[in-house]
Amino acid sequence: MNKLEHIGIAVRNLEESNKLFAKLLGVEHYKIEEVGSEGVRTSFFRLGEVKIELLEATRADSPIAKFIEKKGEGIHHLAFDVNNIKASIADYASKDFTPLNNEPKTGADGKLICFLHPKTTNGVLIELCQDA
Ligand code: ZN
Question: How many angstroms separate the CA atoms of 46 and 29, rounded?
Fold first, then answer.
């Protein structure tokens, strides 16, 4: 892993949370992007080296909707930048972590992504991401 790339936060209402985080961080979000395959709408804030990604569910069966139902709003995942996501998936799988997919998926913000199951990472959902 190269660095913490972003922190993903699950929110109920993206517009309201965009205002809240703009007030909190002192910067406006720089993009809003929908990832249809994941059932999420995301916005991004840049703060130095790290980004904050807000995630809102766009449908009831979205992983974000299920997360909020179970745990409420809050930190959803930590995303780490990697050089070669395919190699990273194989590497972490060989070290007893559980990638949620065998092949990288297309995520928001021009990234190829793969999550590691939180059962294998002390309850923290980890996203591996690489610039596509
Ligand atoms: Zn993310």
Answer: 7
